[in-house]
Amino acid sequence: MEYRRLGKSGLKLSALSFGSWVTFKNQIDTQLAEQCIGAAYDAGVNFFDNAETYANGDSELIMGKALRNLGFSRDSFCVSSKVFFGSHTHPKPTQHGLSRKHILEACHQALQRLQVDYLDLYFCHRPDPETPVEETVRAMHALVQQGKVLYWGTSEWSAEEIGAAHRVARELYLTPPAMEQPQYNLFVRERVEQEYAPLYRDYGMGTTIWSPLASGVLTGKYSRGIPKDSRLNLPGYEWLKERLQSEDGRRRVVAVEQLTVIARELGMSLTQLALAWCLKNPHVSSVILGASRVEQLRENLGALAQVPKLTSEVMLRLATAAN
Known about the structure:
By secondary structure, this protein is of the alpha/beta class. The protein has a domain at 3-215 and 281-293: NADP-dependent oxidoreductase domain (TIM Barrel), CATH 3.20.20. It contains 12 helices and 10 strands. It has helices at residues 30-42, 58-70, 100-114, 133-145, 159-172, 190-195, 197-203, 238-244, 247-266, 270-279, 294-301, 312-322, and strands spanning 3-5, 12-14, 16-19, 47-49, 78-83, 119-124, 149-154, 179-180, 206-209, 286-289. Helix 1 runs parallel beside helix 11 (294-301), helix 2 (58-70) crosses helix 3 (100-114) and helix 3 packs parallel to helix 4 (133-145). The longest helix is centred in the C-terminal third of the chain and has 20 residues, at 247-266. The radius of gyration is 19 Å and the shape is globular.
């Protein structure tokens, strides 16, 4: 396993990490989660990603039980949560958003569900236009000061919004955000590669990226339609299905055929090619994997060994095929 610094911080995360979005509870029970987390840890993964809203909090409960059963030394792994959407199907006004109240209470709830004393990483899952950024930064700083959070960051914030948080933190001598968790894959590139460029330079931001396989499109499994056991058929994920069936989604499925040819030439799976492509970006601190089977996870972890095959010539071919 390769380990990368989280931006300019001293924290080293495994280049490939393991997340629970969609899979935990919906596709994975505690026993299988324990097997997957154990396999990931044995392969050198030290970062496990979660959020209050995943399965309405049940995802964190499952991960917490699995981590407890596995008995890993707490100083050997990192765990995260995210705050914004809440953990209820229909949250009340004080149960979502980035107010000081919800940030603090959501953190305490995540600690209980995950069965840990502190969160290594805590993300503001989306920007909150109804809460002053100063209030959010102060709440995160308070959690850092209390030792309940080690590093805080953002997820799917614009560069302008992240910059505003940094300016507030600097002016008030508060803890600034250390990382952003954006979507990044062969089809979604502009924000990470262009919009965030000043953030890497000015603030040393790290990134823990989600959806490196474009919600499964870059595995090739949707080339002949949507399998019955696909996440696209799960209740609550109809938006993913609509995205795939859109004009842009159909274009991506066609592009996958060209990418598959390149992967075959290089002697790797399409999945490994897509993950290796993400790993080539030096501003990517960790690529979050999602898997519902141990075998699937192990194949994904094999992407790290394939990175040297992605020469500048291959990268150009991939960019052309994806566009």
